[in-house]
Amino acid sequence: MTEWFMCLFSRTLPWSSVLRVWDMFFCEGVKVLFRVGLVILKYGLRPQVLKRCPGMYETLQALRNIDHGVMAEGFLLFQV
Q1: pTM score, two decimals?
Q2: Which of 30, 41, 53, 71 has its CA 20 to 30 A from that of 5?
Q3: pLDDT one-digit tens code per residue, 26-38
Q4: Handedness of CA 13, 14, 20, 22 (dihedral sign)
Q5: To the nearest 5 percent, what fractions of the chain are helix, strand and coil?
């Protein structure tokens, strides 16, 4: 799972956020990667977004179009 999360975050997050997540990963371990994933899901799929997603396909499309503010370094790391 760790390799998958590292690959996922490096392809979707802004580079400054990726570097901070990696720093935290090297200092604190694997739990950081799961926390980052949970924060992205929590704030990327807010209730108003989920109301527009009746099925799995729509939910995955919503995850592909997460607001950049959620993935910004300052917001993401503060929530983690």
Answers
A1: 0.80
A2: 53
A3: 999 889 989 998 9
A4: positive
A5: 80, 0, 20
